[in-house]
Amino acid sequence: MSLLELKSISKIYGDLHALDNVSLKVEKGEWVAIMGPSGSGKSTMMNIIGCMDKPTSGQVLLDGVDISKESDRNLTAIRRDKIGLIFQQFHLVNYLTALENVMVAQYYHSVPDEAEAMEALRRVGLADRAKHLPSQLSGGEQQRVCIARALINYPELILADEPTGNLDEANENIVLEIFRQLHAEGTTLVVVTHDPEVGEVAQRTVVLEYGKITREIHNESFEAKTAPALAEARN
Amino acid sequence: MTKQKMFLRMITASLVRRRSRMLVALLAIAVGATILSGLVTIYYDVPRQMGAEFRNYGANMILVPSGNDAAFNMDAVEETLGYIKPDQLVGVAPYRYETVRIHEQPIVAAGTDMEGAKATSPYWHINGAWPDAAGDILLGQKVADQLGLKPGDTLTVSYAAEEAEPAAEPKTDAQAGETNRLDAASQAEGQEESGADEAQTTGEDYVPDASLDMMVTGILETGGSEEEYVYLSMEDLNGLTGGSDKLDVVELSVSADQSELKQYGSDIENNVDDVTPRLVKRVTESESTVLTKLQALVFLVTAVVLVLTMICVATTMTAAVTERRKEIGLRKALGASNRSIIGEFMGEGLLLGGVGGLIGAGLGFAFAQAVSMKVFNSSITFQPLLLPVTIVVSVLVAGCACLLPVKSATEVDPAVVLKGE
After folding, report:
1. Interface check B385 vs A, CB under 8 A
2. Domain of residue A27, residue span
């Protein structure tokens, strides 16, 4: 069973078909990039997969559960339990420290655990920046806090919206390296991007144009690049 | 870490690390709480303060003889005073009126305790000095004008029992308390007229039983009927008239509100046989009216200030919610339910209310103290209960002010506010 399955979903705003009869499957442990130009429907698809919006028609199965007809309250619970979100603008709470920002996700999910939150920051290389406010962190560091927050509750799906859109090349590489590690550990990643370099490092790239999937590209070199790391992680 | 600890950590961080933004709301609550605490302190203390002020307008209770006995003595007065709390008793002035002759003129003389008269009639204006020794006498302005006397002059006061007797039936049916003392005096005045008539009819038949040389220490100005009498010590009058200790009327100045005075009056009437208490309605009702109006004004101002505080806090919180729409969207995206969002924003509002209330309670007491010193020239009593009451009211006001902003916070759509550029 696929972790995520979109079955002929459409999202219509008046006369605009933001998504038009789109179908997609994402397997557990897969790393999928969704690419497309502005207005192609990427954000709409991300919102629907992230349980922040509902399709006008079609079905969305997440871990076998149809979430397209769920109430807002249930969607909030599903999002909390199964999805980790990473944003282009990081969206950290500006009056909480890096550590507290990670703990906020724990707070809504279950019980805050400072040691565990610190471990998540250590994992993204920010243990020494735990007590800093977002304003005291660089863009790359903020994005890594955002990733630590997304990982803290061990979600089944990491959904990233333009995760490197506001980063320089050095920080982009750091973030992509973290994604590689997560993938190697078996985390399912769906990354929405318009950056071809980010799309290329994914296992599979889905291209959206005018609300439709026009192409799917399987990255041939992906297995060769990641197989050793994957094997190491799985061992 | 428990969820409760994290909750507190988040809301305190929001207030402390965003203090410049929340300062306006905190100030609004603190000012509102200051006015509330200050005015309520004054509200409770004004009756005491005003009571003291009203004591300057004279006695508020009069004791007159019961039935037809027409007189009572200090024993009955002492018994009466047993029914009044000692700390509320400002002054007691016993009066005995007799007709005497000065420069052959019949005059009403009032024997009294000068210290008591000072306490019960602080509005009396004396040109010269109060009598403070045997042989001293205070003249009413009209008497002084009539006799052509001034402070420092000497005179002879004479008394004839026969002259006083024909009119020695005091009236006891006075209805309004404030008229009783004057009634008693006018009885003596009746005697005076009667005596004068008699003197006129008997010509030179007037033969004094006793006489006393006295010195005028002062002239009394009140603008009222008090100026028609002369005042000497009770001992001098009793000595002149033959040692009787009867009293015609006693003035009491009691620092109590109208209901307490009525209760005292009822207790005295029921328990002391020789005495009938009368409230000086002119004073007690004026005091009651002024207090009621002042308290209504305080209540109105407090209510208006609290409403203004609520509006100010609501405006600040609405601005905070608008400013924090992305944060709210993020929290929802992370799985926060509407209940959590409400809890966090209300928590911030209530904490703000609590802190503002605490500050306001302290400042309010200082404010009340300053007002009291300025207006009444006396310090105010701290009401311990007002501290929790001010905090609770501030928290409630802040809570009510947060209702609409918090509702709008729950309507934030994370998909809209978190949309990438």
Report:
1. no
2. 4-234
**Is B13–A165 a contact, with Cβ atoms under 8 angstroms apart?**
no
> Per the structure block, which two tokens stand in for A6?
């979109």
Q: Give the number of other CB atoms < 10 A from CB of residue B48.
A: 17
User: Any idea where the domains of chain B sit in the sequence?
Assistant: 3-53+289-417, 59-279
Of A44, A103, A51, the closest CA to residue A73 belongs to A51
Sign of the alpha-carbon torsion through B193, B95, B136, B235 = positive
Chain A CB contacts of B344 under 8 Å are none
Within B203-257, residue ranges assigned H as helices are 234-241
Query: Is the minimum CB–CB distance between A39 and chain B shorter than 8 Å?
Result: no
DSSP H stretches of helix in chain A: 42-49, 72-82, 98-109, 114-123, 139-151, 169-184, 196-200, 220-234
Which of A80, A88, A95 is facing B13, going by the closest CB pair?
A95
Record the pTM: 0.69
Residue range A101-122, pLDDT digits in tens: 999 999 999 999 999 999 999 9
The CATH number covering residue A126 comes to 3.40.50.300
**Residue A57 backbone dihedrals phi, psi, to 5 degrees:** -150, 165
The ipTM, to two decimals, is 0.89
CB contact under 8 A, A89 and B421: yes
Residue with the two structure tokens 């006083």: B164
Q: What is the pLDDT of residues B144-182, one digit of tens each?
A: 999 999 999 999 999 887 665 544 333 333 334 444 455
What is the Cα–Cα distance from B417 to B414, expressed in whole angstroms? 5
Closest CA to B414 of A133, A75, A155: A75
| B191 in Cβ contact with B99 (< 8 Å) | yes
CB contact set of B30 (below 8 Å; sequence gap of 6+): B356, B359, B360, B363
Contact A91 B336 (CB under 8 A): no
A43, A50, A103 member nearest B420 (Cβ): A43
